Amino acid sequence: MSEMQASGSAAAVELRGVGRVYGSGHTQVVALQPTDLSVRHGELVAVMGPSGSGKSTLLAIVGGLDRPSTGRVMVEGNDLGGLDSTGLALLRRRTVGYVFQELNLLAGLTASENVSLPLELEGVGGGPARDAAQAALSRVGLSELGDRFPDDLSGGEQQRVAIARAIVGSRRVLLTDEPTGALDSVNGELVMRLLRAHCDAGGAGLLVTHDAAHAAWADRVVFLRDGRIVDESRPASIPDMPEPIGSAA
Amino acid sequence: MTSGTTAVLRIARRSLLRDRWRALLIVALIALPVMGITTAALVLETGLPNPAERATQRMGRADLRVTPIGSYGRAELQALLPAGATIEPIWQSGDRVVLAGVRLGIGVWSMDPDGLAIGVVTLVGGRGPAIADEVAVSTRLADRAGVGIGDSLDLEGAGEVHVVGLVEDPRNTGRPLALSAPSLAETPGVIPEWLVALPAGTSAAAVAEDVASTVDPAYRDVGQPMFDVVTRDQAGAASETFVTFIVLLGSLALVEAALVASAAFAVGIRRRQRELGLLGAAGATPRQLAGSVLAEGLLAGLAAVVAGIVLGMLLAWGISLRLDDLTSQRTRPLELDPGVLVAAGLVGLLAAVIAAAVPAWGAARLPTLVALSGRRPPSTPARRLLVFGIGLIVFATGCTLVAPLVGRTGDALALLLLVVGAVTGVLGFGACSPWLLERLEGIARRLPLAPRVALRDTARARTRNGPIVTAVLASVAAAIALAAVLASQQAHSMTFWRPQVSSDSMEIRGLVPETAGGRVARELGATGYGPDRSADGPDGAWNYEVVMPLLHPDPADDRTDLGIYFVIGDEHLLLAYHGEAALEVFRGGATVVLEQVSAEGDWTVTGSAGQVVRQSYDESTGRSTSTDMGEVPVVRIPGRGDTESGTIAVMPTTTAATLGLDIDQSQSQYLVRLDHDVTAADMERAGAIAIAADPDANVTGPLPPPDPMLAFRMAMLAAALVTALVVTGIAVALGEIEARPDQRTMLALGAPRGLRRRITASRGMVIAVLAGLLAVPAGLLPVWGVLVPLGWPMVVPVPEVIGALVVLPVAAILGGLLLGRPIPEWSARRDELR
Questions:
Q1: Which pLDDT does position B647 carry in this prediction?
Q2: Is A246 left (phi over 0), alpha (psi -120 to 50) or beta?
Q3: Interface touch B453/A67, C-beta < 8 Å
Q4: Quick one: which of A78, A246, B160, B479 has the most CB atoms within 10 Å?
Q5: Residue of A106, A161, A178 to mutate, interface with B, max B Cβ within 10 Å
């Protein structure tokens, strides 16, 4: 059993009464009603809901990109309310990995450099950073494509590089915002396998998706509507768990 | 208008409106040079006199202005003119007015302000002077002297005079001027010029030719004419150099603007890529796609032209309100010349369309599928651009090498070739920049994150950044080229420079009171100084004075009677003039000719004996006569490279006394020998002492003269660097626009917010380093081409090269760090992050 799994079922992410309001007066928009949510290590939680329901806001708050108007957010034992912007940046470098639907990679960096970017920002030397990046790329099955630039990669390859970057180093919380939105079904499934494998290895995952088939890969599905959790359930059916790509290597 | 054209125009208009800041940048880039050209042209048209005004300012309402070459006067001129011609004297000279112990140099004119000279001088108050002790003064002189009509003034040459009127020189209203009675122009000792009014129906050109071709009987063998004649047409003609300079500067500014605007259009195309793909998918032809981009350029150009012309007119109007004060001339009210406005507008439109042309071509070639994918389209192969660039450089080199062969630098064809060579050279080096960026990309892997991202981004967008680099290098290369020409000219002239006096001596010239020379000597620790009448004066002083005889060391050589600077003194003077080699023969009574080493190398004195001829002037007849004073031994030695005084002859005092030469005491100069080598501080102090006594005094010494163009070069360098930094800043801003999505990713990865600032600074550094590196050869190449055929050494202008290689990149980095912004907060700048 890995070290990550050893931490067992302690909550990797915990939200208590977290709400977010943008603007004020007649321009005020309630993006997220006070919400409670926890994600344990080894757990992949899918967040579903229509557009504007607050899914991305929820993800941004957990990732420390946005601050809640109310409530408390704990990520790996860190109270985000007590962190300044530098502390939040450090959290994203060391603890949280982010994957967006598109525009994930810096076009001026190679795949390997994109993956090692969080480590470089952390001050890790070039050699160890490259080694870690290569290892992460291997885990997503792209060890041969490290020198390529994003424009030279397919959409699926780009998203797998983004996942490699999100899991490089010792980061355990993976936040993904529609990671399969721009991919075909084959590549979409590949990405979902990677997410699943990350959580099975002891990481925690929060997946924002519109796609029920992708949500089926999660342990739990949370439904948001108008910024409020309206339902929470286990997926109707979980596909067979194939071996994650690259796990054999 | 076809529906397709309508659609294209609509798309272009909305594209501009949607991306307002970029559109504003493009409009500003085109509008500013248009504004500059409009303003400059209108102000020049208003401020510069037209041919008729120029003629009037020079010759009033006369048909001819005649200048005697010898000492011929009214009678001789009248004899050459047709019957019925009237003539009036006009005398423009100088004098000094004594004001509170300071002598102020002023213009002293004699002419009739109500006669033919009307317009040469304008009576603005009181009346014109009628008798010898009356003057009308300019406002400047009246203010300076604190006098008005009815007061008196002490003129150095004429004594006390009464102010009876106020006058103005229309060519220089700030000139201190005293107008005396016209009759003074025809008093003995004065050789005036003449204004001639011809009878109606007489051809001024024909009369001018007749008068100008009449040879002076005294110089028949050399064909020297008696008079020089200027007609109204000739007086009205003006040099167009300044106007040409303005047009050239404006055109260069437009080229710069077009290059930068081209990059702005390219960014717009990149941002509109999906839209272009959708248009292509909907059936738009490549021509229509290109048309939408060209239409964008046209619309932006139209807006820029309107804005530029309106702003230019407003600025010109504002300047015209103060133009009289700024130019010290009486100028006309502002005239809005439609030709100027149309020309400025057309040039602006052309620049906008040219700026949009390359991006339009790119849009037409963009495959629809690539456009729809959002991926960056493949760049033009850098190697192809490199070959093109090298071709341009070779062509440019050929132009600059051929230019001196087809004519002198001032010739139109030679000038055109030089300009074409310089411009194509800059474009050639600029065309090489994408290939260099591609090569530099190879080292990016080893760079820290910020410069790596900046270099990679710049290299990926090399097609857009090529024009930017060209624009930056063009401004810096222009400064380098100009500086190289000036520095090389200076070095060339300094090759022939030798100190005028020995290292411990200074020469003070001007109408300086004797006390000034003594004061300089006392304050600076002199071992001796002159003038002094005594050969054995106090403090080891020696005497020398200047006379103006003519020396004929070789009677067969006509050139030597053209006026050698002739001084008489003792051996101290000879030593101060570098005559050590001839000291012994000088002591023996020989006159020593210290030959000037001239740039042309054709000015030498031959022979071992000379005939001293004294010229004297008879005021009663207005004629000068030459008197043979006798022969003297002459020794020639090379020396005195100073080009100001030319070849000089030093005659021993004893020899002058033997010949019976009178000393001309009005030609005062002071030689001060110090007990140490002269320093720049000594020169400055001596200059201050001398100028306090005589504003026109000057001090020359053994130190090389400062480069007179250095301040101008520094101003040009500063202007070039500012231009380059502004263009670099625009390039960086465009790069930031394109890289905006990256900021979201960086924020999500925990990048420090200041990383964006470092990347901004690095983007500026990449552009500045590349442009600076290319600017050095681009600037030096055309200069090399000009100097090689002349055989002149080329001087690399070090300050400008340092400016290009060091100052520009450092300033770009500092500018990026100071002006760059951090990555915006996720919540605070959601719109910007998208």
A1: 66
A2: left
A3: no
A4: B479
A5: A106
CB contact under 8 A, A103 and B741: yes
What is the chain A residue with the closest CA to B824? A65
Closest CA to B175 of B128, B139, B122, B135: B139
Rounded average pLDDT over A122-136:
87
At B662 the pLDDT is: 58
Give residues with Cβ within 8 angstroms of B688, minimum separation 6: none
Q: For position B471, what pLDDT does the model report?
A: 87
Judged by a CB distance cut-off of 8 A, whether residue A156 touches chain B is: no
With an 8 Å Cβ cutoff, are A60 and B753 in contact? no
At B187 the three-state DSSP class reads: coil
d(CA B427, CA B423): 6
Q: What is the pLDDT of residue B833?
A: 40
> B510: which DSSP letter?
S
Alpha carbons A194 and B47: distance in angstroms, whole number:
77
Two structure tokens written together for B230: 């200027």
Chain A residues with beta carbon closer than 8 angstroms to that of B748: 63, 65, 92, 98, 100
**At which residue do the structure tokens 């008879």 appear?**
B618
Instruction: Show residues of chain B in contact with A165, CB under 8 Å.
Output: 749
**A27 in reach of chain B (CB within 8 A):** no
The helix, strand and coil proportions of chain B, stated in percent and rounded to the nearest 5, come to 55, 15, 30
CA torsion B166-B171-B177-B178 (nearest 10°) is: -60
**Minimum CA–CA partner of A90 in chain B:** B750
Cβ atoms of B346 and B37 within 8 Å: the answer is no
- Say if CB A68 and CB B724 are below 8 A apart: no
Q: Given this model, what pLDDT does residue B275 score?
A: 79
B742 → closest Cβ in A22, A90, A106 = A106
Q: How far apart are CA B129 and CA B106, in angstroms?
A: 17
Residues in chain B within 8 Å Cβ distance of A151: 375-376
Q: Does A89 touch chain B (CB under 8 A)?
A: yes
pLDDT in tens, A50-72: 888 888 889 889 988 888 999 99
- Mapped onto helix, strand or coil, the DSSP state of residue A34 is strand
- Residue B20 pLDDT: 81
Collect all residues from B whose CB is shorter than 8 A from any CB in A.
Answer: 375-376, 445, 449, 452-453, 455-457, 460, 739, 741-742, 744-753, 755, 825-827
Nearest CA in chain B to A59: B748
Q: Which two tokens stand for residue A82?
A: 């007590």
Task: Work out the minimum CA distance from A98 to partner chain B, whole angstroms.
Answer: 6
- What ipTM describes this predicted complex? 0.73
Chain A CB contacts of B752 under 8 Å are: 86, 89, 121
Neighbours of B285 (CB within 10 A): 12
Residue B408: predicted pLDDT: 56
- The answer to whether the beta carbons of residues B252 and B474 sit under 8 Å apart is yes
Give residue B801's pLDDT. Answer: 96
Longest dimension (CA), chain B: 107
Taking 70 as the pLDDT cut, the residues of chain B under it are 1-5, 7, 95-105, 156-158, 238-252, 281-282, 378-380, 407-412, 496-498, 510-518, 525-566, 595-628, 638-647, 661-669, 693-696, 827-834
| pLDDT over 70, % of chain A | 89
Distance, CA of A240 to CA of A189 (rounded, Å): 12
